[in-house]
Design goal:
Layout (H helix, E strand, L loop, with lengths): L1 H26 L5 H31 L4 H38 L3 E3 L6 E3 L10 H16 L19
Antiparallel strand pairs: 1-2
Helix pairs in contact: 1-2, 2-3
């Protein structure tokens, strides 16, 4: 058990450093997507190694007939690392999806001050008042409204169309 704990400590430290490094990369403006992917892959490797050792520690605890309370405490600590990894998987997936959307539509990006969500900046066409222009004008808003990948609350973060509407 002591040997596993000896291996676990530097793995936990490496995991935490990898998380902090990934956080730093994401906070850069503009975000270097290659660096994000590289740092995330490194985090995944560290997480897998840590999980392997953590599982072995739990198994040894069971074999040594430890108390339920001691097992629960270790289990909760281990779950904290697993939950962090899941949160980073989701966050990186969303960053990559947002980046792909931004590159595909060739929009500049706006960063919300209330969250780390990055949405494409849209230049809205002004309505000329002609009925023949209405459908084109309306469709630019309809595209955002019907996009299910964007949370309803986040749809309000798109650039205001400005005067004339």
């Amino acid at each position: 058990m002591d040997a596993l704990k000896l291996r676990r400590t530097p793995l936990r430290t490496a995991f935490t450093k990898a998380v902090n490094h990934l956080q730093e990369i994401i906070e850069n403006d503009p975000v270097d997507m290659n660096a994000v992917e590289t740092a995330f892959e490194q985090l995944k490797v560290k997480s897998a190694k840590l999980k392997e050792v953590e599982d072995a520690v739990l198994e040894l605890m069971i074999e040594s007939n430890c108390t339920q309370e001691a097992y629960n405490i270790k289990f909760e600590a281990i779950e904290g690392y697993a939950e962090k990894m899941i949160a980073w998987q989701v966050r990186v997936k969303n960053i990559m999806k947002t980046d792909a959307l931004g590159q595909k539509d060739n929009h500049s990006l706006v960063t919300s001050s209330s969250s780390s969500l990055r949405l494409p900046k849209i230049q809205f066409q002004q309505f000329s008042g002609e009925l023949t222009d209405w459908l084109r004008f309306h469709n630019q808003f309809k595209r955002i409204h019907e996009d299910e990948s964007i949370d309803d609350g986040d749809k309000f973060q798109f650039q205001n169309p400005g005067p004339g509407i």
